[in-house]
Specification:
This protein has 343 residues and is of the alpha/beta class. It has 2 domains: 3-312, NADP-dependent oxidoreductase domain (TIM Barrel, Alpha-Beta Barrel); 313-343, no CATH class. It has helices spanning 33-45, 61-70, 99-113, 132-145, 158-171, 194-201, 219-222, 239-255, 259-268, 283-290, 299-309, 317-320, 323-330, and strands spanning 3-5, 12-14, 17-19, 50-52, 78-83, 118-123, 148-154, 176-180, 204-205, 277-279. It has an 8-stranded parallel sheet, with helices on one face. It is globular. The two termini are 31 Å apart.
Amino acid sequence: MRYKLLGRSGLRVSELCLGAISFGTEWNSGADKEESRKIFDKFAEAGGNFIDTANRYTEGTSEKFLGEFMGSERDKFVISTKYSLHTKPGDINNGGNSRKNMFRSVDGSLKRLNSDYIDVLYIHMWDFTTPVDEVMRGLDDLIRMGKVHYIAVSDTPAWIVSGAQIMAELRGWSQFVAFQAEYNLIKREAERDILPMCEHFDITCVPWAPIAGGVLSGKYLKDANATGRIKPISMRRNERSNRITAKVVEVADELGVTPAQVAMNWIRQNRYRMIPVVGARSVAQITDSLGCLDFEIPAEKLAELEEFTKIELGFPHDMLQGEQARSLIYGGLFEKLDNHRRR
């Protein structure tokens, strides 16, 4: 396991992040306490120190298990959790991005984690009602209070994050160091605005669902009725995703590795700086995922996967990257420009 700096910070995290969403059986798809402990230990033994959870995961059990598993070694791990989602249905202020829910949620997470602090606190998703300044000031206050060390954001439009980041910089508040988005060989829409934004602001992207909820493992190609969290007809299971998965399986067979490892390494070797969230419901699954650290996808195979799964960026990206626009902007000399910010 190697380590990376998280965003524009000095925080050192493992190149894989363990997703603890599966710790607990309350959602009828996770691992019991014993198996969760084995998954945690396997990840830690491999050198992993970056672990992701949320106040809502398995009704709070995920955070409780982590608190027990870390024990006296709490300081060794970098724990990220999230607020925004409700923990009590029927209470209008129990969810959302407001300062009230933020502080309530953080206090609850600290109790469940049995910790005095949270390493990284994410906004779980944007609620479109709370003012940006209320959110950013509240997050900064939590850092000044010592309850949170770093802040991050998930599942939020790029234009909102950009405005929040600039506001925080101008007002001397803490800024985001990480962004979570769904990103994999089937779902590449983040390339339109989110990933360029992360690169511009020096924010580390921490993709969730790197193997598309198990689809890219190839198990549904072998058995369309295989058990899993993904429904037979969804954005992840359709003709296009089947074609992409078949291509991943083909590359995996050529390299002598598993399809899931190929999907993971496509993210690890991406041109954008990324740390994929690795989920597991069994020791076998986390062992397979950790195997991605033992090899790299050759450049020609990466190019094949890029071309096979590429998406249309849409307006204005397609226009601005077209030959006509570049000719008009650069006087016909675009190819002679040597600049690291070129796209």
